[in-house]
Amino acid sequence: MCGFAGFIDFQDSQQSQQYWTDIAQMGKQLFRRGPDDEKVVNASPLWLIFRRLSIIDVTGGVQPIWNENNTMFVVVNGEIYNHLELRSQLRENHHFRTKSDAEIVLHLYEELGVKALEYLNGMFAIALWDGQKQQLLLARDRLGIKPLYYAQVDSQLIFGSTLASLLAHPNTPWHPQFQDLTNLSTTTSYVRGINRLAGGHYLLFDAHTETVTPQCYWNLADYLVTEPVNDTRTPSDYVKEYRELFVDSVNKRLMSDVPVGACLSGGLDSGVIAAVARQVQPDFHCFNICDDNTRENGDFQAAYQLCQQLKLPFHPIWFDPEIFLDQLDFSLETLEYFIWLIDSPKFNLEWIYKHELYRYAKTVMPELKVMLLGQGSDEFAGGYSTADDKTVKNWQEYNSELASKQEYNLQRKKSTGLKDGSSVFDYTLQYCPPGCTSFQKEMLMEIYSLQDYNLWHEDRTSMNQSIEARVPFLDHRLVQYLVSIPPQHHPTLFWNKTIIRQMAQEWLPNDFVYRQKSHATEPKIYNRMKYKIVQRIFPEFKQKYIDNPDKCLFKPETMLEWFEQPDRSENGILGFEQLLNGMAMTVFKELCRLRSSRIPGDYLYGRSPLEVRL
Q1: What is the distance between the terminal CA atoms of the chain, rounded to a whole angstrom?
Q2: Nearest CA among 323, 336, 12, 266 for reference residue 157
Q3: 342 Cβ partners below 8 Å, 6+ apart?
Q4: What is the C-alpha R_g of the chain?
Q5: What's phi and psi for 79, nearest 5 deg?
Q6: Which helix (H) or strand (E) holds 535?
Q7: Nearest CA to 180 among 423, 456, 449, 428?
Q8: For 548-592, what is each residue's pLDDT tens digit?
Q9: Are strands 156-160 and 149-153 parallel, antiparallel or unpaired?
Q10: Residues annotated as catalytic (active site), given as ranges
């Protein structure tokens, strides 16, 4: 819903004009995350800027929000879905200044301190300043849906919602750390000295803090059940209980004072969200990525027919790979923009598709500020176990395959000399209880892979079109419930995602529920478009980067060799993957060096060039 950035230094509380300049530059990087309002706080020794995307209490919910005696304030990026329930549970009398969900964090913290985080149901990044204690709290939601970065530079702590907002501060380190591209780290920012605060963690910073040390307030491993459990519940009971939690999760994520829509792929997960949401909001708008592949595999038809059955407005956005790059006027500036947007030295065409989906949704409905997504179902409900995969035929074979993959990753880590404790695999081994199955280990690893990819790009692509993406399947209660199901029920409930399919039968026809899982876009289509991108922008890239020794990350002859390799036929398109990755890393390094001084303005913002086609 918003973005914030700031810095604090107990050893330097001066009120220089430079500080006003620094905080303003950090805020400029957050404009698209919060176009509706901007507030700057100078609460020496803390400086903070907040950009708001107004969704709850549109006129009255301005942040920061202060307590009754103006000794404490809070800013929240995201939503606290159970804020009304928590208001009724406060032990003391509090004067609420707003109807905003963010204000509950303030008063709950006054009563409980950091333990307040355990009571919040939502997606959030929080900055809370306690003026009496002279202490700053930074916290992130359990699953890491909303981003939060920080860097400690001597006695100063610099923090923000995006990497670009930190880099805009002159004291922030900027040198890239490319080795993290091959090491799925839980906290990497791809810049040495800047960290992501991991999901389920918080940190405190005050005058006595020498080294910032994040603390864990939620660990999914605590909910794992590894031993057979003697209870009377049947698989049907688990489906029923999960269904009740799911309905509550969807209803909570419809909480909004502005219009809400959904991304509808034609798959089970987004389909069941739309079906449940429609019971509360009959005019719920659905947006669909449509191309030749989704027409061929049936996803488009499934999404269209479902909207017809549910009587929901349907907007299929047509992506034609032959003209798509021309429609965007794709140039080197476009690649630079997406590297800035994603806060990463990587480039993936899925990000462009999603970015343009959100952009089109905003074109159709300028007042739209919230979209529901189906992310997070597959990762914890057995979505990658299926008989459609010819390599595995049952749950036992699927677990054996997972065990082999995990052993391979462990041996690969040892062979590359990565330090212990530096990767997702280390975290999984550290927290896995005795008797943990391969699937349960996979569940724990999925938390971090979601933060590194799916949630990462969904937040950036949506918020850069000033839309908040919400993920009902990642309500922490749902995830905790799935991992707490005893292993003896896993073959019945998790093979081919049975628990989700049986739950969905309450609202969806069987032909939709049991459709074969398909990939939204075939790899060959992506590969062809990457090939065309390289051909399109390489001359400009060469002139700006390769021919400039200060900007070129790789040896010029190496990049030229990658481009001029003899096999440029369609079968050799994959060879350009290496070059495109190298170009992304080169651009990332330059953006870091320039401290993201390039502000995108209206670039790829506003009216979409794409069209709806039925």
Answers
A1: 32
A2: 12
A3: 351, 456, 457, 460
A4: 24
A5: -140, 145
A6: helix 523-541
A7: 423
A8: 988 989 999 989 988 887 555 555 555 688 899 999 999 999 999
A9: antiparallel
A10: 2
